[in-house]
Amino acid sequence: MKTRKFTLIELLVVIAIIAILASMLLPALNQAREKAKAIKCVSNLKQISTGTALYLDDNMEFFPQQNGGNPSCFWTQNIVRHGYVGNSNLDGNNLPQLFSCPSRTIAPVRDRPSWGLNTQISEWGDYSNGNGITYESIKLSRLKQPSKTFVYVETLKWNDYSSGAGNWGMFMIARTQRPTSTGNERWMPYHKLMTGKATVGFADGHVEGISRTQMDIYAATDDLPWTTGL
Question: Out of 48, 125, 157, 218, which could bridge 65 as a Cys pair, Cβ 3.0 to 4.6 Å?
Fold first, then answer.
């Protein structure tokens, strides 16, 4: 019995069918991959928010300072070194990987997590405005609507990103900051460059993914959700 061989045309048809099927499946696979990254991003921030809640319990409901003390200690290091989040034995400027969303390509360090702490919640702990007023963090009980008040907002260190240095985050975030702002340190909500949702942690501990459209609305608002109840 003769063994039938594929003709060149038949082989090309099979290859073409495989290519068509692959082109149909790849977008679905990429979409699933991005969804998994988004879920992981929310999970990471939820762990940070839970650790922050434990910090509040142990510190009379005061939020961690953005940066304060001698030697200087960022809020990220504060909650890690005291065992609220991640491995408390980390040395130097390094942070646990959970301080970064999977979409980021650079490992997080103390002042470059994926999320910034709302400047209305906590300011520099050792910074004076020249009039004898030192900016510090506020108490949770001062917030009238914790479930609607931002604590952590996904950020992007704009001058690093625009120069090609990487997609770092920034340890602090304010509503008014934009890529066009002046100064050595410029940052912005990462949602400005996202087609999906930015992860945001609220004062009551819950985490949400917020659309770019909604974040743009929030960015134009002086009170809710940046200074709710203050």
Answer: 125
List the alpha helices (DSSP H) in 114-182.
Answer: 158-163
pLDDT for res 177: 62
What would the pLDDT profile of 46-65 be if each residue is shown by its tens digit? 999 999 999 999 989 989 88
Which two three-digit tokens encode residue 220? 């134009």
Query: pLDDT value at position 49?
Result: 96
Domain positions in the chain are 41-219
- As a whole number of angstroms, the distance between CA 156 and CA 113 comes to 9
**Strands 127-128 and 134-135, bridge-based pairing:** antiparallel
- The residues pairing with 150 across neighbouring beta strands, listed in sequence order, are 202
| Beta pairing, strands 207-211 & 197-202 | antiparallel
Count of Cβ atoms closer than 10 Å to residue 132 Cβ: 6
Full DSSP string of 67-109: EETTTTEEHHHHHHHTTSSS-TT--TTB--GGGS-TT-SS--B
Distance of CA 144 to the CA centre of its chain: 24
pLDDT tens for each residue of 156-209: 877 676 776 667 788 888 776 655 555 555 566 776 666 678 889 999 999 998
Residue 153 near residue 198, CB atoms below 8 Å: yes
